[in-house]
Design a protein that fits this description.
- It is a single chain.
- By secondary structure, the protein is an alpha+beta fold.
- The protein folds into two domains: about 100 residues, Pseudouridine synthase I, catalytic domain, N-terminal subdomain (Alpha-Beta Plaits); about 140 residues, Pseudouridine synthase I, catalytic domain, C-terminal subdomain (Alpha-Beta Plaits, 2-Layer Sandwich), CATH 3.30.70.660.
- It is globular and about 60 Å long.
Length: about 250
């Protein structure tokens, strides 16, 4: 058997998330359906770096699977993109050691969130940008981002519905907020992320941008470890899994 690592991009607007769900269209479901076709009816299970929710997009999701087929790497990319639906695309394919795991070997992830900050919505961006029509103090939001960087327990910024157990401590290497014309781009890069963590953080930053909170509130919110103190989870359409990094050898 050979283990294959793929980097994927997908438009999440027509998916009910990544993970397989009964009767719902999911990214994993479409990938495994395509692999079954390539493998002449044999089921092939894929493993991802992490799940994305309904409506969330990916520029650099990573999966792995095992196969007995002996295609060359370029042929795998061509074969997969031939049978994948139009809203999923394989960017690259690599043969990796048998010990590699797309989820457990992750050393860094990057998410980006995009806001359309105009009073009038752009209907052509409705599935790809969160339309936020209110005035924002981006400088205050940038100051707040600095308080988020570093190693913290991010319980306050994790969904109360999260089922994963274990430590809520994560290391944020980068947290930035920049305006580009009518768009505001948030970049979060870290060792890992809790369920809904980015969308909750963006909600708090928007409160700060509107003057409802102060950037100085961030350390206290972190210390309290209480999801009820944070803001509403912003919608999924502005969120992108941008990049997943592994050790050099993989």
């Amino acid at each position: 058997m050979r283990k294959i690592k793929c980097t994927l991009a997908y438009d999440g607007s027509q998916f009910s998330g990544f993970q397989i769900q009964p009767k719902n269209r999911t990214v994993q479901g479409e990938i495994e359906k395509a692999l079954k076709k390539i493998h002449k009816g044999m089921d092939v299970r894929v493993h991802a770096s992490g799940r994305t929710d309904s409506g969330v997009h990916a520029v650099g999701q990573t999966i792995h699977f095992e196969t007995a087929l002996r295609f060359a790497e370029p042929n795998w990319k061509r074969a997969l993109n031939t049978v994948f639906p139009d809203d999923v695309y394989v960017k690259d394919v690599l043969f990796v050691p048998a010990s590699f795991h797309a989820r457990y070997d992750v050393v860094e992830k990057e998410y980006r969130y995009y806001l359309w900050n105009e009073k009038e919505p752009d209907i052509f961006k409705r599935n790809y940008r969160y339309n936020f029509p209110y005035q924002l103090d981006v400088e205050a939001m940038q100051e707040a981002c600095r308080h988020l960087m570093g190693t913290h327990d991010f319980t306050t910024f994790s969904s109360a519905k999260a089922s994963a157990r274990g430590s809520r401590v994560r290391n944020l290497y980068e947290a930035t907020c920049e305006r580009h014309g009518s768009e505001i781009e948030f970049i979060f890069r870290g060792s890992g992320f809790l369920y809904n963590m980015v969308r909750i953080i963006v909600g708090v930053l928007l409160d700060i941008g509107q003057g409802r909170r102060s950037e100085a509130d961030i350390p206290d919110l972190i210390a309290q470890k209480d999801r009820r103190l944070a803001s509403t989870t912003v919608p999924p359409e502005g969120l992108y899994l941008w990049e997943v990094k592994y050790d050099v050898e993989t």
